[in-house]
Amino acid sequence: MSITSDLNLTLKSIPWFHDLPQEKIDALAQIARFCDVSAGSSLFKEGTRPDTLYILLEGQLILESFVPTRGSVFMNKAEPLDIIGWSCVTPVVRERTCSAKALSACHLICFDTSSLITLCDSDPELGYVIMRRLTNVIASHHLNTRLQLFDIIVRQPGKMIPSTQE
Questions:
Q1: What CATH number is associated with residue 54?
Q2: Assigned domain for 163 exists
């Protein structure tokens, strides 16, 4: 993906926003900024305050979560156009649920959470589009986590989870 210095053009080129009218792109551009993370650097750490939603434009990030007795566990690898830090827009999440580290130099669009929520609340049509698309991201992450849990169970065949069905 070719990155321009113009947030409007970049936002318009992201499939998430293709069907939005220009005034909604303009409103999003007003609360967005570009940010860069060098390879090996942390974008955010698990347990910190979730105050930014990211769209990865270039590079790769690894998402890991700390599991007692296991240490850092791979959760997902983010590729260009992935949404990172989506839990920041939910009302119950008070801290990051994983850490994000750059595998390569990354270029991102960053949205301040409180500004994004305010924009979505003041423009219900835009809010609906954003939240509907975020639910797809959440569902995808839920499926990925479920598959990882199945993989853990398969690798430990002696430890079966009791069935809730009778």
A1: 2.60.120.10
A2: no
